[in-house]
Amino acid sequence: MVNDQRPAPRPNGFGSAAQPYTAAEPYTAAAPRPDARHDPAPSQEAPVEFSFVSPQGVTHRVRATFGPDRPRLVRPPALARPVRFEDGWQGFQVRLPREAGADREAYALLQAEITAALALHRAYAGTRFGGLFPTPVGYDVNTLTPFVLYAVPRGRPLSGSAERVSLAEQRAVERDLVLAVRLMEAVGLVHRGIVPGAVRRDAQGVQVWDLGSVVRAGCPRVPYGIPPYASPEQRAGVGTTEARDALWSVAQLMYHLVTGRPGSPDGPPADLAAQRSVAETLGPVFARQAADRPTPDALLRTLVPEIAAEAAGALLPDPMERHRREFDEIRRRKRASFAPPPPPAHTPYVPAPEPPGLPNGHGADGPPGYGEAPPFTGYEYPVRERGRLRTWISGGRTSGTNEPGGSRSEGDTRR
Question: In degrees, to the nearest 5, what angle opens at C-alpha 111 toward C-alphas 101 and 197?
């Protein structure tokens, strides 16, 4: 839903936003619903029946062909693959594989990604700034492999100094990243995962991905991210989340882009004074405490005052915000009512003494205990593939991505 009071779209200087999918005949209640739990094989060539819910809440049923999984294009354990509809539309599907179904953390991140993508789309679709973020086309979380559909991403991930960016290109990337942080702040969101792998760039500008790392501003910080891209207070999990956390990530990313090496995780890099192109514009952002960094609006007004003024004109108040806050409060109270009552204070739990015999209270003829390891419950987190995650964060590329530099062997993280 787009606010009709927004100004008419202008020529886009921040990358074109892809057009969302529009079906000629959307799914209706009279038509039989396809089996949404069916997960096509990653390399299936024949079209399969496929359904999703659009950002407007309309269920579409199409026939689609899925390409092979593209490794390291999204944060593990999520997978990404191209998709083509029979009417010719092409997109990009981010999904959780079936083996990650018990990973509650991964499922929560995908839900957060869908929520953030829809919020940014509703706020900035049709404006000049829509191309800074992925264009959501549809989603479905009620399947064995929950997913979100996007229009085709632009450009390729940022890497280090091998990019050989000019000063003008550096200033354009810097402007777009600070602007993206400011626009997210305006709708109450903070990106905690701005790393080279989450930022894509082409001749038109940048596009910020990994929206699963986006949270509401003002929520308590929890330990998240890796140094040096995550701010010290974010890694420590103290205080409340704010947009200046994301500005720290932007400064670290720009230092890495210029020098080809990571900066200091706890403050300004030792050679920051020698990197004048970074120090002149982002020097104060390297402050260890968030309170000592400039706000996104103040920094943007320093870098590009005309863009800051134009962005402020696009940030009209959302007439539904009050109702959304009321809904969130009702949902919070409802969830709190489902919490089990605390145990009575007058009946403290006293463990029974263990009878003689084997450990864990079983006798000689009793069942074996779990002295070495607890029983498998099905909710254990799967072992993370550290190599894939590290390459995703650094913006590495592998073969099969159809991107420049994509001919290296699997696992090669050199630039």
Answer: 90
Place of tokens 């060539």: 45
Q: What is the pLDDT of residues 128-149, one digit of tens each?
A: 888 999 999 999 988 888 999 9
Strand locations in 131-277 (E): 136-140, 147-151, 156-157, 189-191, 199-202, 205-208, 214-216
Evaluate if residue 309 carries a pLDDT over 80: yes
Element (H, E) at 183: helix 167-186
Q: Provide the pairing of β-strand 156-157 with 48-53.
A: unpaired
Task: Count CA atoms closer than 13 A to 368's CA, side-chain side.
Answer: 6
Q: Could you report the per-residue pLDDT of 395-408, keeping only the tens digit for each?
A: 765 444 444 444 44
DSSP state of 240: B
Burial of 12 (0-12, 13-18, 19+ CB in 10 A): middle
- How many whole angstroms separate alpha carbon 310 and alpha carbon 91? 30
Nearby residues of 342 by Cβ (< 8 Å), 6 or more positions away: none
Question: How far is the C-alpha of 207 from the C-alpha of 120, rounded, in Å?
Answer: 13
Q: pLDDT (tens digit, 9 = 90+) per residue, 20-31? A: 665 544 333 333
Residue 97: CB atoms within 10 Å: 17
Q: What is the CA radius of gyration of the chain?
A: 24
Q: What is the mean pLDDT of residues 32-47?
A: 48
- List, for residues 331-380, the tens digit of each pLDDT value: 788 877 776 766 666 555 566 676 665 555 455 555 544 445 555 544 44
pLDDT recorded at residue 56: 86
Buried b vs exposed e over 360-393: b needs ≥16 C-beta within 10 Å?
eeeeeeeeeeeeeeeeeeeeeeeeeeeebbbbbb
Start-to-end CA distance of the chain, whole Å, equals 42
Residue located via tokens 């020529």: 11
| Residue 409 confidence class, pLDDT cut points 50, 70, 90 | very low
Among 228, 260, 10, 277, residue whose Cα is nearest residue 127: 10
Provide the pLDDT for residue 195.
92
Per-residue H/E/C for 368-408: CCCCCCCCCCCCCCCCCCHHHHHHHHHCCCCCCCCCCCCCC
- In contact, 147 and 95? CB cutoff 8 Å: yes
Element (H, E) at 313: helix 305-314
**Phi and psi based region of residue 191 (left: phi greater than 0; alpha: psi -120 to 50; beta: remaining):** beta
